[in-house]
Structure formats: C-alpha cells, structure tokens
Amino acid sequence: MQGQSQQQAYDRGITIFSPDGRLYQVEYAREAVKRGTASIGVRTPEGVVLAVDKRIRSPLMERDSVEKLHKADDHVGIASAGHVADARQLIDFARRQAQVDQLRYGQPVGVETLTKTVTDHIQQYTQVGGARPFGVALIIGGIEDGEPRLYETDPSGTPYEWQALAVGADRGEIEDYLEANYEPELSLDGGVGLALSALASVNDGELRPEGTGVATVAVDDEQFRRLDDDEVETHLAESDLLAEE
Asked: Which residues of 29-75 form beta strands (DSSP E)?
C-alpha cells in the first residue's frame, strides 16, 4: 500500500519526476497508444508504405469517418495509433508547419524537419502544468531530397527513424515479423505486401479490404497516394491474405 501511495503522489502532475526518474503521465500516454489498432510503416528504395488496421466497431458506422491515414503535404503521409482526437490535433499542427515552411522558404518541408517540429510540440506537453501528454504515436513517412524517410513520434516527444516499424496494439509481435521478413532492397509493391502480411500476422492471417488502409509515397513522383479498396484487395489476393466472405 505504501508503494502505491508513493506512486500516486508522483503520477498526478506531469511536471513531477518520481524518485526513480519516471514521468508516470508519459508512461500512461504510451499505454493509451497500445490500446489503438495497429499502424505499420515500411521504407523501401522506391518509397514508403503506410498500412493501418481500420476495423470499425459497428456496421452502422460510416467507414470514411475512421481516420488513421492522413496527408500532411504532397510528399508526406502520416499514420496514427492511439487517441484519434489527439492525432488530429498533431496532424493539423504538422500541416500548418508544412505550409509555413513552403511559404517561408519556397520549398517543401523536409520530413526530418517536420518530424522534429512535431516532436518539439509534443515534448512541451510533458513539462507544462495544467496539460497532459498526447496519447498518440505517429508514423511520418515521405520523400526528402529524393530519399525515402520514415519516422516515429513518441508521447515523450522523441523522434526515431526506422526502416520498418509498427505502433499501436500488438506492436511487439508485428515488429518481430518485420525483423524476420524485411529486406532493404524491397520494391514499393513488395513493401505493401510486407506491411499487409505483418498486419495479417496478428489478425488470424487474413484481412478485409474495407478494414485495411494503405498509402504510399513513391520516389518517382513524391506524391502521397491512398490505395482504394480494389487495389488493396488485389494486394491481399496476391499475398493470399484475403479473408473469405
């Protein structure tokens, strides 16, 4: 009981470190991310792939209202896991920053620059009283100077660059699959197949097109592109991941 009461003394304020150097509210925000459905990012020499699990809770819900894939700029896409409302705030912030850079410098914002601007914004909410951390993790992928880049943002405000990663539910299992199957020289279509296979590995080995979102940013045209249901179904069929009706 005494240990529990000591923890409660430190987890009520975001600005207070516990004696062992922990910020409990940031750790709780990470737990909120784990409750969100999975999102996956894969980087290939031909571009980046973002894939998300967007299963809906009820057949009465409009599918388009489930927002997990977002266009931040023509050359940058974002996938989220965690609190949707928090994700929308951060994505709106990222879009504004992309436009500010375009107007100020006359060129598209760099993916690394945009990611670090977003994580600086996130970090402020870990040291200001009267606020709480963002309960969401983002995968930010795009093309910078002709090179694919793939980043993760954490509720602590730390940016990480990856070749392939997952955020949200079943992260450990999905990343184990990615580590075992990722190849640095994958084609863009191969990256889509890997992302879908990794997502299916924690969904009984099968997926439905209407419950899966996929977007790419290719090196060739540097344009964010969302795949439609027919294209997703084709990729699922080719990888033998298509769920039976």
From this structure: 39-44, 47-53, 69-73
